[in-house]
Model the fold of this input.
Amino acid sequence: MKAIKLRIYPTLEQRRQLSREFAVRRHVWNWALERRSSAYKTDKTSLNAVGLSRELTRKKASDTSLCRVSSTALNNTLWDLDAAFQNFFKKQGRYPKRKKFGAVNSVCYTLDKRKKVFRDGELLKLPKVGSLRVVWSREVPVFPNTATVSKTPDGRWFVSLQIDYTDPVAAPTTDKQIGIDLGLTCFAALSDGEKIYSPKPLKQGLRRLAHAQRATSRAQRGSSNRRKARQRVARIHRQIADQRANFLHQQSTRIVGENAVIAIEDLHVRGMMANGKLARSIGDASWGEFRRMLTYKSKWMGRDLRIVQRFERTTGVCPDCGLVGDRLPLNVRSWTCECGATHDRDVAAARMILSTARSAGIYDPGLANKPDDSGASRDNTGWDEGVKAQHISPHGRGQRVSRSQGARLCA
Done:
């Protein structure tokens, strides 16, 4: 399954219709959420999207505003709420909340394949909206299942077409392997010695952003000048986001295309964002988005992405002899091992990440506390009990870890 996002230019009447779709979708979401919550509180009844769809059909007889929008959009809203509850039951999300005014800026349509509503590069027709003017910047190889129209805060319109299409990208054949150590001073240090520096778009645009936000706060609430000022703030945020996304796409595509094996750390980005002094810089670096791009691009190109355990010691360990030294403060950017080798802090960490990934294989956090085929159990680190007994701890100073003794085996 894949999604293709295209820019659209709806007419004035189409924009008004889409605004009505957003408003009714918000109304249906809040109504369905209240019905599910009250039904469970009163008689412990669990309503789903199918039952609510029947009630919504009967509700249309008394509420004419529901008939002015597409029925597929309303049904997809019920299914979205059903998915939100499923994520809550799986402890993958919070309890669904009511949508505030202006919070809904997207609507999903189901396309009927029996009708002439789509032709690649020529036609996209949505129910109640009509034919849209689409910038066909990318090829849509098959008939899409759904079309999601969204509006950005700066006034741009997009449509995302969901298709059932898996076509692996023809990547060049290579046997290179690379380890990546992410940081703030240097965005990414590679095990081959290359360093990638981020343009830091948020830091570069803070002055313009602060000026536009001050102008917004001075404008009178509800006035046209305040609306224009808010759009200026949204445009600056959009420019910053586009610069960051462009940088991450370029680097992730290049790294995945040039290497057969890619090794990175399992960073706890949400926990590090709790640091008030570094939160802005960490958010500007977008480590989580970079890892997400590496993940799906590796699948597209048939590459091997390996994740090193979160608490694995990689900084301050000599990649040549395996000697584990003291923990290095952040101001120390290079150090000399007892074996006489001088290492750059970030490059040495990237080499250790690659070395650990080679011996440990792919680490899947979901395998923790689950028995493997041999019957041996794992603790929350994901290591086998037998391997832990033979393992020389890398956290003690002065201990040398050989490649055979220090192998981290994660089945």
